[in-house]
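Forwarding the complex inputs:
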Amino acid sequence: MGWASFNEDNESRYHNATIIRKREHDAMKPESSNGAQAPSKPLTKLKSFAVPQARPLPVIVLADVSGSMAENGKIDALNVALRDMVASFAKEGRLRAEIQVGLITFGGKTAKEHLPLVAAHSIAIIDRFTADGGTPMGAAFDVARELLEDRERIPSRAYRPVLVLVSDGAPTDDWEDALARLQSSERGKKVTRFAMAIGADADKDMLANFANDREAPVFEAHESRDIMRFFRAVTMSVVARSASATPDEPAALTLSEIPDDDLDIGAL
Amino acid sequence: MLGAAGVSVTGPGHVSLGQANQDAIALRGWRGGWIAAVADGLGSRPLSGLGSRLAVQAAQQTIRSMPTEEPLRASEPRQTATEFYRRWLRAVPYAEKSCVASTILMAACGRDGIGRVWQLGDGLVVCRSKGSFSVVTPERLGFGNETRALGIHRAWSDWCTADVALQERGDAVILMTDGISDDVRIEALEMFTDALVRGVMARTRRGARGWLRNELVNWSTPNHTDDKTVAVIFKG
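Prediction (whole assembly, two chains):
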Protein backbone atom coordinates (compact mmCIF):
# COMPACT_ATOMS: atom_id res chain seq x y z
CA MET A 1 0.00 0.00 0.00
CA GLY A 2 1.41 3.37 -1.01
CA TRP A 3 1.64 6.36 1.31
CA ALA A 4 -1.26 8.16 -0.40
CA SER A 5 -3.72 5.31 -0.03
CA PHE A 6 -2.54 4.68 3.54
CA ASN A 7 -3.07 8.34 4.40
CA GLU A 8 -6.44 8.41 2.65
CA ASP A 9 -7.52 5.36 4.63
CA ASN A 10 -6.50 7.04 7.88
CA GLU A 11 -8.28 10.25 6.99
CA SER A 12 -11.46 8.51 5.95
CA ARG A 13 -11.46 6.49 9.13
CA TYR A 14 -10.91 9.63 11.17
CA HIS A 15 -13.60 11.46 9.23
CA ASN A 16 -16.18 8.72 9.76
CA ALA A 17 -15.24 8.36 13.40
CA THR A 18 -15.83 12.06 13.94
CA ILE A 19 -19.29 11.86 12.43
CA ILE A 20 -20.26 8.86 14.50
CA ARG A 21 -19.04 10.45 17.72
CA LYS A 22 -21.00 13.57 16.95
CA ARG A 23 -24.20 11.59 16.51
CA GLU A 24 -23.56 9.60 19.65
CA HIS A 25 -23.26 12.71 21.75
CA ASP A 26 -25.96 14.86 20.20
CA ALA A 27 -28.24 14.18 23.14
CA MET A 28 -25.63 15.47 25.57
CA LYS A 29 -25.27 18.89 23.95
CA PRO A 30 -26.31 21.62 26.38
CA GLU A 31 -29.07 23.96 25.30
CA SER A 32 -27.86 27.37 24.24
CA SER A 33 -27.43 29.66 27.21
CA ASN A 34 -29.30 32.61 25.70
CA GLY A 35 -32.53 30.65 25.60
CA ALA A 36 -32.56 30.38 21.80
CA GLN A 37 -33.92 27.18 20.34
CA ALA A 38 -31.37 24.57 19.39
CA PRO A 39 -31.17 23.74 15.67
CA SER A 40 -34.08 21.56 14.64
CA LYS A 41 -33.36 17.83 14.75
CA PRO A 42 -33.37 15.82 11.53
CA LEU A 43 -36.69 14.53 10.33
CA THR A 44 -37.31 10.87 11.00
CA LYS A 45 -40.05 8.58 9.76
CA LEU A 46 -41.56 7.91 13.15
CA LYS A 47 -41.45 11.59 14.04
CA SER A 48 -44.78 12.36 12.44
CA PHE A 49 -46.61 10.02 14.83
CA ALA A 50 -45.35 11.66 18.02
CA VAL A 51 -47.33 14.21 19.99
CA PRO A 52 -45.94 17.65 19.13
CA GLN A 53 -46.53 19.08 22.63
CA ALA A 54 -44.50 18.52 25.77
CA ARG A 55 -46.23 16.61 28.54
CA PRO A 56 -48.50 19.01 30.41
CA LEU A 57 -48.20 19.79 34.12
CA PRO A 58 -51.59 21.27 35.05
CA VAL A 59 -51.86 23.79 37.91
CA ILE A 60 -55.47 24.57 38.88
CA VAL A 61 -56.09 27.46 41.27
CA LEU A 62 -59.33 27.64 43.26
CA ALA A 63 -59.54 31.31 44.22
CA ASP A 64 -61.95 32.70 46.79
CA VAL A 65 -63.42 35.99 45.53
CA SER A 66 -66.16 36.27 48.17
CA GLY A 67 -67.03 39.56 49.86
CA SER A 68 -64.74 39.09 52.85
CA MET A 69 -61.70 39.15 50.52
CA ALA A 70 -62.29 42.87 50.06
CA GLU A 71 -60.93 43.59 53.53
CA ASN A 72 -57.31 44.54 54.23
CA GLY A 73 -56.27 44.49 50.58
CA LYS A 74 -56.54 40.68 50.32
CA ILE A 75 -58.18 40.62 46.89
CA ASP A 76 -55.53 42.99 45.53
CA ALA A 77 -52.78 40.77 46.90
CA LEU A 78 -54.45 37.74 45.30
CA ASN A 79 -54.64 39.54 41.94
CA VAL A 80 -50.97 40.46 42.02
CA ALA A 81 -49.88 37.01 43.22
CA LEU A 82 -51.80 35.23 40.45
CA ARG A 83 -50.40 37.52 37.79
CA ASP A 84 -46.85 37.02 39.05
CA MET A 85 -47.27 33.26 39.20
CA VAL A 86 -48.49 32.99 35.63
CA ALA A 87 -45.70 35.31 34.44
CA SER A 88 -43.10 33.17 36.22
CA PHE A 89 -44.46 29.99 34.65
CA ALA A 90 -44.50 31.61 31.22
CA LYS A 91 -40.92 32.83 31.25
CA GLU A 92 -39.43 29.63 32.63
CA GLY A 93 -37.56 28.33 29.59
CA ARG A 94 -35.80 25.17 30.76
CA LEU A 95 -38.82 23.06 31.50
CA ARG A 96 -39.22 19.36 30.99
CA ALA A 97 -42.99 19.84 31.09
CA GLU A 98 -45.38 22.43 29.75
CA ILE A 99 -47.01 24.17 32.72
CA GLN A 100 -50.70 24.77 32.13
CA VAL A 101 -52.77 27.05 34.34
CA GLY A 102 -56.50 26.89 35.05
CA LEU A 103 -58.34 29.29 37.33
CA ILE A 104 -61.61 28.54 39.09
CA THR A 105 -63.14 31.38 41.09
CA PHE A 106 -65.90 31.12 43.67
CA GLY A 107 -67.80 34.08 45.08
CA GLY A 108 -71.42 35.23 45.27
CA LYS A 109 -73.69 32.30 44.43
CA THR A 110 -71.63 30.17 42.13
CA ALA A 111 -68.22 28.94 41.04
CA LYS A 112 -67.00 29.24 37.50
CA GLU A 113 -64.03 28.33 35.39
CA HIS A 114 -62.60 31.78 34.98
CA LEU A 115 -59.60 30.69 32.92
CA PRO A 116 -59.64 27.41 30.98
CA LEU A 117 -56.64 25.16 31.34
CA VAL A 118 -54.08 26.58 28.88
CA ALA A 119 -50.30 26.79 28.58
CA ALA A 120 -48.96 29.51 30.87
CA HIS A 121 -46.93 31.10 28.08
CA SER A 122 -50.09 31.67 26.03
CA ILE A 123 -51.87 33.65 28.75
CA ALA A 124 -51.67 37.32 27.82
CA ILE A 125 -53.53 38.84 30.75
CA ILE A 126 -55.49 37.81 33.81
CA ASP A 127 -58.54 39.86 34.75
CA ARG A 128 -58.52 41.60 38.10
CA PHE A 129 -61.06 40.09 40.45
CA THR A 130 -63.49 41.99 42.64
CA ALA A 131 -64.65 40.52 45.92
CA ASP A 132 -68.37 40.03 46.41
CA GLY A 133 -71.02 37.75 47.99
CA GLY A 134 -70.83 34.35 49.71
CA THR A 135 -68.28 31.51 49.58
CA PRO A 136 -69.61 28.63 47.41
CA MET A 137 -66.51 26.47 47.87
CA GLY A 138 -68.35 23.19 47.34
CA ALA A 139 -69.36 24.34 43.88
CA ALA A 140 -65.69 25.08 43.14
CA PHE A 141 -64.72 21.53 44.18
CA ASP A 142 -67.30 20.16 41.75
CA VAL A 143 -65.96 22.30 38.90
CA ALA A 144 -62.41 21.16 39.69
CA ARG A 145 -63.47 17.50 39.80
CA GLU A 146 -65.19 17.73 36.45
CA LEU A 147 -62.09 19.33 34.96
CA LEU A 148 -59.78 16.67 36.42
CA GLU A 149 -61.95 13.83 35.14
CA ASP A 150 -62.08 15.28 31.61
CA ARG A 151 -59.57 13.13 29.70
CA GLU A 152 -59.78 15.34 26.65
CA ARG A 153 -58.54 18.37 28.54
CA ILE A 154 -56.14 16.57 30.87
CA PRO A 155 -54.80 13.57 28.94
CA SER A 156 -53.42 10.51 30.70
CA ARG A 157 -49.89 11.44 29.61
CA ALA A 158 -50.09 14.58 31.80
CA TYR A 159 -48.01 14.77 34.94
CA ARG A 160 -49.92 14.67 38.20
CA PRO A 161 -51.79 18.01 38.48
CA VAL A 162 -51.49 20.50 41.31
CA LEU A 163 -54.63 21.91 42.92
CA VAL A 164 -54.21 25.14 44.90
CA LEU A 165 -57.02 26.36 47.17
CA VAL A 166 -56.93 29.91 48.54
CA SER A 167 -59.78 30.94 50.83
CA ASP A 168 -60.40 33.32 53.71
CA GLY A 169 -63.65 32.12 55.21
CA ALA A 170 -66.08 29.38 55.97
CA PRO A 171 -67.89 27.96 52.96
CA THR A 172 -71.54 28.94 52.59
CA ASP A 173 -72.68 25.91 50.62
CA ASP A 174 -72.63 22.14 51.06
CA TRP A 175 -68.87 21.70 50.77
CA GLU A 176 -68.47 18.41 52.69
CA ASP A 177 -70.10 16.22 50.06
CA ALA A 178 -68.35 18.08 47.25
CA LEU A 179 -64.95 17.62 48.93
CA ALA A 180 -65.71 13.93 49.48
CA ARG A 181 -66.60 13.55 45.80
CA LEU A 182 -63.36 15.26 44.81
CA GLN A 183 -61.22 13.17 47.14
CA SER A 184 -62.81 9.89 46.07
CA SER A 185 -62.91 10.50 42.34
CA GLU A 186 -60.64 8.40 40.14
CA ARG A 187 -58.24 11.22 39.34
CA GLY A 188 -59.12 13.77 42.03
CA LYS A 189 -57.60 11.56 44.72
CA LYS A 190 -54.29 11.45 42.85
CA VAL A 191 -53.58 15.16 42.47
CA THR A 192 -51.28 17.16 44.73
CA ARG A 193 -53.39 19.56 46.80
CA PHE A 194 -52.10 22.70 48.52
CA ALA A 195 -54.23 25.01 50.65
CA MET A 196 -53.91 28.48 52.12
CA ALA A 197 -56.17 29.82 54.85
CA ILE A 198 -56.55 33.57 54.78
CA GLY A 199 -57.57 35.27 58.02
CA ALA A 200 -58.25 34.04 61.53
CA ASP A 201 -61.84 33.04 60.75
CA ALA A 202 -60.90 30.56 58.01
CA ASP A 203 -62.00 26.97 58.56
CA LYS A 204 -58.53 25.50 58.93
CA ASP A 205 -59.75 21.99 59.74
CA MET A 206 -61.64 21.85 56.49
CA LEU A 207 -58.64 23.18 54.59
CA ALA A 208 -56.45 20.59 56.31
CA ASN A 209 -58.76 17.91 54.91
CA PHE A 210 -58.30 19.39 51.48
CA ALA A 211 -54.49 19.49 51.54
CA ASN A 212 -52.82 16.12 50.99
CA ASP A 213 -49.15 17.04 50.74
CA ARG A 214 -47.37 15.65 53.80
CA GLU A 215 -44.56 18.16 53.35
CA ALA A 216 -46.94 21.11 53.20
CA PRO A 217 -49.61 21.59 55.86
CA VAL A 218 -52.23 24.33 55.51
CA PHE A 219 -50.51 27.67 55.20
CA GLU A 220 -51.94 30.61 57.04
CA ALA A 221 -51.94 34.16 55.79
CA HIS A 222 -52.28 36.95 58.32
CA GLU A 223 -51.24 39.76 56.00
CA SER A 224 -51.68 40.31 52.29
CA ARG A 225 -47.96 39.74 51.68
CA ASP A 226 -48.36 36.18 53.02
CA ILE A 227 -50.56 35.45 49.98
CA MET A 228 -47.72 36.59 47.73
CA ARG A 229 -45.22 34.38 49.56
CA PHE A 230 -47.51 31.36 49.31
CA PHE A 231 -47.91 31.74 45.56
CA ARG A 232 -44.17 32.28 45.21
CA ALA A 233 -43.62 28.97 47.03
CA VAL A 234 -46.15 27.20 44.81
CA THR A 235 -44.42 28.66 41.75
CA MET A 236 -41.00 27.47 42.89
CA SER A 237 -42.32 24.00 43.69
CA VAL A 238 -44.00 23.62 40.30
CA VAL A 239 -41.03 25.05 38.39
CA ALA A 240 -38.64 22.76 40.26
CA ARG A 241 -40.82 19.78 39.33
CA SER A 242 -41.18 20.75 35.70
CA ALA A 243 -37.46 21.39 35.29
CA SER A 244 -36.41 18.14 36.95
CA ALA A 245 -35.71 14.88 35.21
CA THR A 246 -38.67 13.37 37.06
CA PRO A 247 -41.50 15.93 36.92
CA ASP A 248 -43.95 13.53 38.54
CA GLU A 249 -42.05 13.47 41.81
CA PRO A 250 -43.46 16.01 44.29
CA ALA A 251 -41.20 18.91 45.17
CA ALA A 252 -41.20 20.44 48.63
CA LEU A 253 -43.34 23.48 49.30
CA THR A 254 -41.80 25.57 52.06
CA LEU A 255 -42.52 29.18 52.83
CA SER A 256 -39.75 29.46 55.39
CA GLU A 257 -37.14 29.49 52.63
CA ILE A 258 -38.71 32.49 50.94
CA PRO A 259 -37.48 35.77 52.40
CA ASP A 260 -39.81 38.73 52.72
CA ASP A 261 -37.62 40.62 50.25
CA ASP A 262 -37.38 37.73 47.77
CA LEU A 263 -35.72 38.68 44.48
CA ASP A 264 -38.14 36.60 42.37
CA ILE A 265 -35.39 34.66 40.66
CA GLY A 266 -37.31 31.39 40.49
CA ALA A 267 -36.03 28.06 41.77
CA LEU A 268 -32.37 27.87 42.71
CA MET B 1 -39.65 -16.53 8.78
CA LEU B 2 -39.73 -14.42 11.92
CA GLY B 3 -37.36 -11.52 12.43
CA ALA B 4 -36.78 -9.23 15.38
CA ALA B 5 -35.09 -5.99 16.31
CA GLY B 6 -34.96 -3.67 19.26
CA VAL B 7 -33.06 -0.92 20.97
CA SER B 8 -32.94 1.02 24.21
CA VAL B 9 -31.71 4.62 24.47
CA THR B 10 -31.07 6.78 27.51
CA GLY B 11 -33.52 9.66 27.82
CA PRO B 12 -32.32 13.29 27.90
CA GLY B 13 -33.47 13.55 31.52
CA HIS B 14 -30.96 10.94 32.65
CA VAL B 15 -28.28 12.10 30.22
CA SER B 16 -28.43 15.60 31.70
CA LEU B 17 -27.91 14.16 35.20
CA GLY B 18 -25.17 11.76 34.12
CA GLN B 19 -27.34 8.78 35.03
CA ALA B 20 -27.49 5.45 33.24
CA ASN B 21 -30.36 4.08 31.22
CA GLN B 22 -32.96 2.57 33.54
CA ASP B 23 -34.81 0.70 30.83
CA ALA B 24 -33.59 -2.72 29.76
CA ILE B 25 -34.08 -4.97 26.74
CA ALA B 26 -33.37 -8.63 25.98
CA LEU B 27 -34.04 -10.06 22.55
CA ARG B 28 -32.96 -13.64 21.84
CA GLY B 29 -33.76 -16.38 19.36
CA TRP B 30 -35.85 -19.29 20.65
CA ARG B 31 -37.15 -22.44 18.90
CA GLY B 32 -36.79 -20.76 15.51
CA GLY B 33 -38.68 -17.75 16.83
CA TRP B 34 -37.90 -15.07 19.40
CA ILE B 35 -38.24 -14.04 23.02
CA ALA B 36 -38.45 -10.28 23.54
CA ALA B 37 -38.54 -8.48 26.87
CA VAL B 38 -38.40 -4.80 27.76
CA ALA B 39 -38.60 -3.28 31.23
CA ASP B 40 -38.64 0.17 32.78
CA GLY B 41 -37.00 0.67 36.19
CA LEU B 42 -39.05 3.00 38.36
CA GLY B 43 -38.22 6.20 40.12
CA SER B 44 -34.87 7.37 38.70
CA ARG B 45 -33.23 5.92 41.80
CA PRO B 46 -29.70 4.47 41.90
CA LEU B 47 -30.97 0.88 41.72
CA SER B 48 -33.79 1.46 39.22
CA GLY B 49 -31.73 0.10 36.34
CA LEU B 50 -30.92 -3.11 38.22
CA GLY B 51 -34.57 -4.10 38.61
CA SER B 52 -35.27 -3.73 34.91
CA ARG B 53 -32.14 -5.67 33.88
CA LEU B 54 -33.04 -8.52 36.21
CA ALA B 55 -36.59 -8.47 34.86
CA VAL B 56 -35.60 -8.98 31.22
CA GLN B 57 -33.13 -11.70 32.22
CA ALA B 58 -35.79 -13.49 34.26
CA ALA B 59 -38.20 -13.25 31.33
CA GLN B 60 -35.72 -14.98 29.02
CA GLN B 61 -34.92 -17.67 31.59
CA THR B 62 -38.58 -18.35 32.33
CA ILE B 63 -39.54 -18.94 28.71
CA ARG B 64 -36.41 -21.02 28.04
CA SER B 65 -37.10 -23.23 31.03
CA MET B 66 -40.32 -24.50 29.46
CA PRO B 67 -40.13 -28.14 28.34
CA THR B 68 -39.00 -28.27 24.73
CA GLU B 69 -41.69 -30.76 23.75
CA GLU B 70 -44.43 -28.53 25.17
CA PRO B 71 -46.06 -25.89 22.96
CA LEU B 72 -45.96 -22.35 24.36
CA ARG B 73 -49.69 -22.18 24.75
CA ALA B 74 -49.90 -25.46 26.62
CA SER B 75 -49.11 -23.61 29.84
CA GLU B 76 -51.42 -21.16 31.54
CA PRO B 77 -50.34 -17.49 31.16
CA ARG B 78 -50.77 -17.07 34.91
CA GLN B 79 -48.42 -20.00 35.59
CA THR B 80 -45.72 -18.43 33.41
CA ALA B 81 -46.17 -15.04 35.08
CA THR B 82 -45.88 -16.64 38.51
CA GLU B 83 -42.71 -18.51 37.55
CA PHE B 84 -41.26 -15.33 36.08
CA TYR B 85 -42.09 -13.28 39.19
CA ARG B 86 -40.46 -15.90 41.46
CA ARG B 87 -37.29 -15.86 39.38
CA TRP B 88 -37.16 -12.08 39.52
CA LEU B 89 -37.66 -12.06 43.31
CA ARG B 90 -34.89 -14.64 43.73
CA ALA B 91 -32.56 -12.60 41.55
CA VAL B 92 -33.07 -9.33 43.44
CA PRO B 93 -30.33 -9.24 46.07
CA TYR B 94 -32.22 -7.00 48.51
CA ALA B 95 -34.86 -7.75 51.12
CA GLU B 96 -36.81 -4.64 50.14
CA LYS B 97 -37.88 -5.49 46.60
CA SER B 98 -39.61 -2.18 45.93
CA CYS B 99 -36.24 -0.40 45.76
CA VAL B 100 -35.72 -2.09 42.37
CA ALA B 101 -39.34 -1.88 41.20
CA SER B 102 -39.74 -2.33 37.48
CA THR B 103 -42.34 -2.88 34.81
CA ILE B 104 -42.10 -5.86 32.46
CA LEU B 105 -43.35 -6.47 28.93
CA MET B 106 -42.45 -9.82 27.41
CA ALA B 107 -43.36 -11.74 24.30
CA ALA B 108 -42.48 -15.18 23.00
CA CYS B 109 -43.14 -16.53 19.51
CA GLY B 110 -42.18 -19.94 18.19
CA ARG B 111 -41.13 -20.80 14.63
CA ASP B 112 -44.78 -21.05 13.54
CA GLY B 113 -45.54 -17.49 14.69
CA ILE B 114 -47.78 -18.68 17.49
CA GLY B 115 -46.97 -16.63 20.56
CA ARG B 116 -48.04 -14.95 23.72
CA VAL B 117 -47.40 -11.61 25.43
CA TRP B 118 -47.46 -10.60 29.10
CA GLN B 119 -47.40 -7.10 30.62
CA LEU B 120 -47.22 -5.71 34.13
CA GLY B 121 -47.08 -1.93 34.45
CA ASP B 122 -47.12 0.92 31.97
CA GLY B 123 -45.76 0.93 28.46
CA LEU B 124 -47.62 -0.41 25.48
CA VAL B 125 -48.03 -3.69 23.64
CA VAL B 126 -49.54 -3.56 20.16
CA CYS B 127 -49.78 -6.33 17.63
CA ARG B 128 -50.87 -7.15 14.13
CA SER B 129 -52.04 -10.72 14.26
CA LYS B 130 -53.33 -12.47 11.10
CA GLY B 131 -53.46 -9.04 9.49
CA SER B 132 -55.61 -7.52 12.20
CA PHE B 133 -54.27 -4.66 14.36
CA SER B 134 -55.00 -4.51 18.08
CA VAL B 135 -53.79 -2.78 21.23
CA VAL B 136 -53.15 -5.32 23.96
CA THR B 137 -52.60 -2.83 26.80
CA PRO B 138 -55.78 -1.55 28.46
CA GLU B 139 -56.45 2.18 28.57
CA ARG B 140 -54.76 4.02 31.44
CA LEU B 141 -57.11 5.77 33.86
CA GLY B 142 -54.79 8.02 35.85
CA PHE B 143 -51.92 10.32 34.94
CA GLY B 144 -48.47 9.83 33.42
CA ASN B 145 -45.89 7.85 35.38
CA GLU B 146 -48.44 5.99 37.49
CA THR B 147 -47.86 2.33 37.08
CA ARG B 148 -48.07 -1.17 38.43
CA ALA B 149 -44.67 -2.71 39.04
CA LEU B 150 -42.72 -5.81 40.03
CA GLY B 151 -41.77 -5.56 43.70
CA ILE B 152 -44.94 -3.63 44.55
CA HIS B 153 -47.93 -5.33 42.95
CA ARG B 154 -48.49 -9.05 43.18
CA ALA B 155 -52.03 -9.72 41.93
CA TRP B 156 -52.68 -11.59 38.70
CA SER B 157 -55.39 -9.02 37.92
CA ASP B 158 -52.61 -6.40 37.58
CA TRP B 159 -51.28 -8.24 34.52
CA CYS B 160 -52.57 -8.26 30.99
CA THR B 161 -51.84 -11.00 28.50
CA ALA B 162 -52.81 -11.97 24.97
CA ASP B 163 -52.17 -14.68 22.40
CA VAL B 164 -50.83 -13.68 18.99
CA ALA B 165 -50.39 -15.43 15.66
CA LEU B 166 -47.80 -13.85 13.35
CA GLN B 167 -48.74 -15.61 10.14
CA GLU B 168 -49.07 -12.98 7.42
CA ARG B 169 -46.22 -10.86 6.10
CA GLY B 170 -46.13 -7.68 8.19
CA ASP B 171 -47.69 -9.27 11.26
CA ALA B 172 -45.82 -8.15 14.34
CA VAL B 173 -45.86 -7.70 18.08
CA ILE B 174 -44.27 -4.54 19.47
CA LEU B 175 -43.29 -3.87 23.07
CA MET B 176 -42.43 -0.31 24.09
CA THR B 177 -41.81 1.48 27.37
CA ASP B 178 -43.79 4.57 28.32
CA GLY B 179 -41.03 6.88 27.12
CA ILE B 180 -42.32 6.08 23.64
CA SER B 181 -45.94 5.04 24.15
CA ASP B 182 -46.94 8.17 26.10
CA ASP B 183 -45.76 10.37 23.23
CA VAL B 184 -47.39 8.55 20.31
CA ARG B 185 -50.72 9.99 19.21
CA ILE B 186 -53.38 7.41 20.05
CA GLU B 187 -55.20 7.85 16.75
CA ALA B 188 -51.92 7.20 14.89
CA LEU B 189 -50.95 4.01 16.73
CA GLU B 190 -51.74 1.69 13.84
CA MET B 191 -49.84 3.82 11.33
CA PHE B 192 -46.95 4.10 13.79
CA THR B 193 -46.90 0.32 14.11
CA ASP B 194 -46.89 -0.20 10.34
CA ALA B 195 -44.18 2.42 9.78
CA LEU B 196 -42.02 0.84 12.45
CA VAL B 197 -42.47 -2.68 11.08
CA ARG B 198 -41.80 -1.55 7.49
CA GLY B 199 -38.66 0.30 8.61
CA VAL B 200 -37.35 -2.73 10.47
CA MET B 201 -38.24 -5.22 7.73
CA ALA B 202 -36.36 -3.18 5.14
CA ARG B 203 -33.09 -3.48 7.04
CA THR B 204 -30.76 -6.04 8.50
CA ARG B 205 -31.12 -6.60 12.23
CA ARG B 206 -28.08 -4.45 12.89
CA GLY B 207 -29.26 -1.80 10.47
CA ALA B 208 -32.69 -1.82 12.07
CA ARG B 209 -31.13 -1.28 15.47
CA GLY B 210 -29.22 1.73 14.20
CA TRP B 211 -32.32 3.13 12.51
CA LEU B 212 -34.42 2.72 15.64
CA ARG B 213 -31.70 4.30 17.76
CA ASN B 214 -31.63 7.31 15.47
CA GLU B 215 -35.41 7.57 15.54
CA LEU B 216 -35.54 7.50 19.33
CA VAL B 217 -32.60 9.82 19.96
CA ASN B 218 -34.19 12.34 17.59
CA TRP B 219 -37.64 11.90 19.10
CA SER B 220 -39.80 14.86 18.16
CA THR B 221 -41.94 15.49 21.24
CA PRO B 222 -40.59 18.68 22.83
CA ASN B 223 -38.74 18.30 26.12
CA HIS B 224 -39.13 14.55 26.27
CA THR B 225 -37.17 13.10 29.19
CA ASP B 226 -37.75 9.37 29.52
CA ASP B 227 -35.56 6.48 28.51
CA LYS B 228 -36.99 4.80 25.42
CA THR B 229 -37.02 1.12 24.61
CA VAL B 230 -38.75 -0.81 21.86
CA ALA B 231 -38.64 -4.43 20.72
CA VAL B 232 -40.45 -5.89 17.73
CA ILE B 233 -40.95 -9.46 16.52
CA PHE B 234 -42.30 -9.60 12.96
CA LYS B 235 -43.21 -11.99 10.19
CA GLY B 236 -40.95 -11.19 7.24
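The radius of gyration of chain B is 16 Å.
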